[in-house]
Amino acid sequence: MTELNDTIHRVTQRVIEKSRPRRQAYLDLIAREADNRPDRASVSCSNLAHAYAGTPEDQAALVAAKGPNIGIVTSYNDMLSAHQPYGRYPERLKIYAREVGATAQVAGATPAMCDGVTQGQEGMELSLFSRDTIALSTAVALSHAMYDGVALLGICDKIVPGLLMGALRFGHLPCVFVPSGPMPSGIANKEKQKTRQLYAEGKVGRDELLASEMGSYHSPGTCTFYGTANSNQMMMEMMGLHVPGSAFIQPGTKLRQALDRAAMHRTAAMHQDGEDYRPLGKCVDEKAIVNAAIGLLATGGSTNHAIHIPAMARAAGISFDWTDLSELSSAVPLITQVYPNGSGDVNHFHDAGGMGYVIGALLDAGLCHRDILTVSDSDLSKYAQEPGLAEDDTLVWRDVGESGDDTMLRPASNPFKPDGGMRLLEGNLGRACFKSSAVERDRWTVEAPCRVFQTQHDVAEAFKAGELDRDVVVVVRFQGPRANGMPELHKLTPPLGVLQDRGYKVALVTDGRMSGASGKVPAAIHVTPEALAHDGASGPLAKLQDGDIVRVCAATGTLSTTADLDAREAAPDPAPDMGMGRELFASFRLLADGAEQGASPMLAGAGL
């Protein structure tokens, strides 16, 4: 067995040491919760009657308390394609629970918004805080204390982190994530990207653009590019929170159904009174969090997880920051290229070996932790295999073998790039993330006069007017969590990509977010401290002016300006916008902490 890489060992030990007081407090909490869980035999009959009234098929089993009762927390809606298949899941999952002497009830539902629908729209300003709303909704669902285990139904961007953050506060319960899988592949991703840029240049019309987009996003299932949603699925595999190999099996297939059945059977097997108790709070430990970060780096996953991983870690009493992420990146090679970093999508990735290959390659090279407590009946080793069906349709796991496509998957000894491509930038403009795995190396350094904007729409207007046809660092500020909820700035990618293709040196600097779907244009994102004043002090971005020389360099980890910021007054904070429900999230904005801490109002407000 290969020894663990020295850098990964060192970072893991540092995370363990700095987390020790909070982690111990967390473990004490879930131990106390486990000890204090209600014995339903002693709970008021009126309470139980309320809980059992809606489940006539299972009332007798619930009254007899013959087996564990599993709570289902669902994020179903049929606007979000990835979650549309969940509509029929509860009735199926209840049947699977009965097969092993358990019962199941829908404990509650969470919101599930789609960044693909809200990108460039006002609703995107609710997106990041929907994660914390989902966590709170999960807590409300589980507060009835009727459950011995939890099935978590969620896939997309803020939904999986939110479900995990909420469920971790009930970490004495075993929990399994149950994905529904990606939609079949549509038009080639490069074709879609080309049409977007042609539209940005005015060379094709809206009809052509809509036809292209609908050729890509065309049916129930997760979008097939490797953005935040599919990065979520990767991380659940790396942390051992799925039935092994569940991430990228398409909806409506026999294999998908078999994996869903196995998820309920495992949830039932792990309850506190059984012989294989695996509480979520013990599964999600420091090694599991480091594994999630390693998977992100090895696969070129979404930059959104530079925010979500610290937040998920905090919910389990663990401290993880961008220094940890950047240092891990120096040791973890990029062994995967999936669109937008490559040409194939997640279906092609899965067919080439998928997560089984990735985990096997990392384990063979000593680049991730094998000895974690998973929701399977083994350590992480089983996640290096791929699921399939035997002749009698029973679920089996098989060795993956060699990569089926070395343009998409490679061993750690022959990576696409020697590091994980998530770099920390620092300087007199703050700290930021730079996804170097998506950017050609000759574009890692841009030093140019900046142009300062306060919205992505202003950038689009300046582009259309020809005002950005030069070497330029585009600064979009007042986009942080306290300013407006830290929306993703998807609309910036096509115009900045066009400028870059015209031969200009172009970079983006922002305290907002860009997702794993952005790619190609060098970007210092999630800049912290954000521009909006906090405790009387504005962030450095608030003092930049048009024409200031800004340097963005992934090679040296630099984010700086030659301007004398100390001699300047900051630009005034913008007034918060109203409408689209944004005013309802004013308290969230007020409480939110910095991006590097997870940008969470919920965790900050709870003192976690």
Automatic annotation (TrEMBL):
GO biological process, one term: D-gluconate metabolic process
Gene Ontology cellular component list: cytosol
Pathway: Carbohydrate metabolism; Entner-Doudoroff pathway
Chain segments annotated as coiled-coil in the UniProt record: none
E.C. numbers: 4.2.1.12
Record's keyword terms, sorted: 4Fe-4S, Carbohydrate metabolism, Gluconate utilization, Iron, Iron-sulfur, Lyase, Metal-binding
GO molecular function, one term: 4 iron, 4 sulfur cluster binding
Reactions performed catalytically: 6-phospho-D-gluconate = 2-dehydro-3-deoxy-6-phospho-D-gluconate + H2O
Cofactor binding summary note: Binds 1 [4Fe-4S] cluster.
EC primary class: lyase
Dihydroxy-acid/6-phosphogluconate dehydratase N-terminal domain residues: 68-381
Pfam families (UniProt xref): ILV_EDD_C, ILVD_EDD_N
Dihydroxy-acid/6-phosphogluconate dehydratase C-terminal domain segment(s): 408-599
InterPro entries: 6-phosphgluc_deHydtase (IPR004786), Dihydro-acid_dehy_C (IPR042096), DiOHA_6PGluconate_deHydtase_CS (IPR020558), ILV_EDD_C (IPR056740), ILV_EDD_N (IPR000581), IlvD/EDD_N (IPR037237)
Annotated [4Fe-4S] cluster binding sites: C156, C223
Cofactor: [4Fe-4S] cluster
HAMAP family the UniProt entry points to: Edd
Biological function: Catalyzes the dehydration of 6-phospho-D-gluconate to 2-dehydro-3-deoxy-6-phospho-D-gluconate.
Membership in a protein family: Belongs to the IlvD/Edd family.
NCBIfam families listed in its UniProt record: edd
PANTHER family hit by this protein: D-XYLONATE DEHYDRATASE, PHOSPHOGLUCONATE DEHYDRATASE
Name the UniProt record assigns to this protein: Phosphogluconate dehydratase
Annotated source species: Paraurantiacibacter namhicola
Source species taxonomy: Bacteria, Pseudomonadati, Pseudomonadota, Alphaproteobacteria, Sphingomonadales
Gene: edd
